[in-house]
Amino acid sequence: MKKNIFFIVIVMVLFSISACEKNSNIESNNEIKYRIDYLKVSDFDNYGKFHNELLTQASIKYPNGLNPSDSVQFVNTISDFCKEIVLSETIQQNFDFTDGFSALLFTAFEKTKDQFLINNPNTFMDESNFEEEIKNLKDSGTISSFYQSILVRIFNDAKLNLNNDLSYEEFGVRIDNYINEFNNHQYPIDSNEGMVLAITLSLAANSIVWWTNPRNYNNQIQERIVPWLIADAIGAVLSGGAALISECAEDDDINWWGVAAWTVAGGAGMSIGVKL
After folding, report:
1. How far apart are the first and last CA of the chain?
2. Residue 26: pLDDT above 60?
3. In sequence order, what are the residues at sequence separation of 6 or more whose Cβ sits closer than 8 angstroms to the Cβ of residue 54?
4. Which bin fits 87, alpha (ψ -120 to 50), beta or left (φ > 0)?
5. pLDDT at 23
6. 251 with 21: CB under 8 angstroms?
7. CA angle 93, 241, 225 (to 5 degrees)
8. 121: confidence class by pLDDT, cuts 50, 70, 90
9. For the chain, which residues make up each domain, given as ranges?
């Protein structure tokens, strides 16, 4: 299954375009406690840690993996597992998720289950119009040029990796650089765009921590990020971008917490497929 991992995440880019939903139950502040006057990625570390907890729990529950030959059972099992974890009281308490955000996550994991598989990630990346769509969002004033820049650069990092031109070490350095850029950008604490971008970077950073621990990949490592690190990070970043595209296609009233939920599902849910 691991040789086909990257496709599991990238498919979220297309699927999220038509799948992101509105939910009026999410409060605008979501009870997030900010430490300073401007947003920092570390303010959203619980989302990245939730991603890692999902991976760990999947490893414990399915130590021998799943049979990918039965694609329907494979995706249903992953979806049911993620929904079960999301509804756990322990998870909600430990990661400070509101009931509304947990409901969005539950829906996201359900909606993605039939869209986990695609045959050729290289072809998908070549044919994707993601960069153009994100540029359109920037040109329309929906997102800033800074937000666009971070998404596009990570998207291009994935392309470099597919061509064997980017190691996982260098990818980690680049994610650290993006986080530093974010922290210096001075997003106001009530910035919805900043919230979503911070969550995507948190997932990317925590993913690196999890996948570079030898206990989590049976002491095997590759120079290419695929099928591990890049899958989680790109899933989070591109799913968030694609969810924005979907929201804007429906109307001008963007549910940013809905976008955040798809960001988490894109990284965490697809990571389960990576591991199993």
Report:
1. 7
2. no
3. 82, 85, 268, 269, 271, 272
4. alpha
5. 45
6. no
7. 85
8. low
9. 2-23+37-116+128-275
**Cα-only R_g, the chain:** 17
Q: How far apart are CA 202 and CA 182, in angstroms?
A: 11
What's the pLDDT at 153? 92
| Predicted TM-score (pTM) above 0.85 | no
Per DSSP, the three-state class of 87 is coil
CA atoms within 13 A on the CB side of 195: 18
Number of helical (H) and strand (E) elements in the chain, helices listed first: 13, 0
Give DSSP secondary structure letters for 30-61: TT---SSSB--GGGGHHHHHHHHHHHHHHHHH
CB contact at 8 A, 48 and 202: yes
Q: Which two tokens stand for residue 233?
A: 């990070």
Query: Which of 216, 209, 137, 159 shows the shortest CA–CA distance to 179?
Result: 209
Cβ proximity of 156 and 174 under 8 Å: no
